[in-house]
Amino acid sequence: MSTVHAPAPARSATSTPPVLLTDLVRVELRKLVDTRAGVWLHATVALLCAAVAAAAFALPAEEVVGTAFVAYGGAVASLLLPVTAILALTTEWSQGSVLTSFVLVPHRSRVVGAKLVAILASATVFSAFVLALAALATPLARALVGAPAGRWDVGVEHSLTLWLGIVLSMLMGAAFGALVMNPAGAIVVYLVLPFAWSVVGQLVDGADDVAQWLDTSITYSRLLEGAVETGGQWQQIAVSTLVWVLLPLAAGLVRLGRREVR
């Protein structure tokens, strides 16, 4: 007598375990550096940070100190690293691979969140790199230039403001990337709009006072230099961040959530 086996129940689609956020972050980190272009871009930023930081040796001896090396290296990182953030938010749309990403993870906010976490991790690594450069260059300055050069005057507060300055700059790049969704267009917007605002602030009477609140080249440079000394300056940083980071990022996330994937 033969035994009749009941058919195995069909596996529900809902039984597939969701992709963990940590896995998404790991994927986004690999996307940042796991291509030839990504490796060369980050290597170029690192080399330029070192080269520009070395320019601090040309300052008067009393100014060749740790904060100078940090400010010079941080300025390069805050200018160029946002390009990597822009590419992180736009490359998939331009190459069409976004369809795969959003099929595997239908909740777009989780994908974008993973990209932002990867951007924060990149900013943290480069902040540590800039501080390490400064720590190496400072005793070298004392040996090559002589006293009073080579004084290490970088404290915990300056280290944190350096990190914050690089983070906000990269988030600004991500915001423009999410808003424009085109690599070339977003890079142009990121580079041209703040620069144009700086020019207006210098040419138009009375605009200089407004620039103290809206020009990130002024507000964020204080973070990189460790020169935020008053509550009013923190308010200026907050206002410029609202205008150039939070509002564009919010608008970009809305647009990203509504854009048709094809």
UniProtKB/TrEMBL annotation:
Domain of life, per UniProt, equals Bacteria
Q: Where are the transmembrane segments?
A: 39-59, 65-89, 116-140, 160-180, 187-204, 237-256
Question: Does the record carry Coiled coil as a key word?
Answer: no
Query: Which keywords describe this protein according to UniProt?
Result: Membrane, Transmembrane, Transmembrane helix
Keyword Metal-binding, does the record have it? no
Protein's name according to its UniProt entry: ABC transporter permease
Q: Which organism is it from?
A: Cellulomonas gelida
